[in-house]
Amino acid sequence: MQAVETIPLTPAPVAGMKTTEWATVDDQGRLVLPPEAAARLGLTPGAQVRIDDVTNGLRLHRPVTHLAKV
Predict the structure, then answer these.
(1) Is the pLDDT score of 41 beyond 90?
(2) By Cβ atoms counted within 10 A, which residue in 28, 44, 55, 68 is the most buried?
(3) Could you give the domains of the chain?
(4) CA–CA separation, 70 vs 18, rounded Å?
(5) Distance between CA atoms of 25 and 18, rounded to whole angstroms?
(6) CB 14 within 8 A of CB 20
(7) pLDDT averaged over the chain?
(8) Helix, strand, or coil here: 51?
(9) 3 pLDDT higher than 70
(10) 33: closest CA among 68, 25, 52, 54?
(11) How far apart are CA 9 and CA 68, in angstroms?
(12) C-alpha span between 70 and 61 (Å, rounded)
């Protein structure tokens, strides 16, 4: 298995500010998110993430167990 290096590209996000981060595809075709991004989304091993195919990209959605309060 290939090691994945995460390099922070932006400062810590400010409330409401969008950030740009990079994920890596490993040698088994899995998308590896930076640990900080996974933690912000509440992702833990085995979590299911909804992925929408949108124009020019993919959109990830938080697991149902970590939805924001309305």
Answers:
(1) no
(2) 44
(3) 24-66 (2.10.260)
(4) 20
(5) 22
(6) no
(7) 78
(8) strand
(9) no
(10) 25
(11) 25
(12) 16
Instruction: Give the Cα separation of 37 and 20 in Å (integer).
Output: 10
| 25, pLDDT greater than 90 | yes
Please report which confidence band the pLDDT of residue 4 belongs to, taking 50, 70 and 90 as the band edges. low
CB-count burial class (<10 Å; 0-12, 13-18, 19+) for 32: middle
Taking alpha carbons only, the member of 60, 33, 58, 34 closest to residue 48 is 60
Query: Positive or negative CA dihedral for 31, 53, 21, 36?
Result: negative
Q: How far apart (Å, rounded) are the C-alpha atoms in residues 42 and 51?
A: 15
Q: What is d(CA 13, CA 16) in angstroms, rounded to the nearest whole number?
A: 8
**Scanning the structure block, which residue is given the tokens 């290096």?**
5
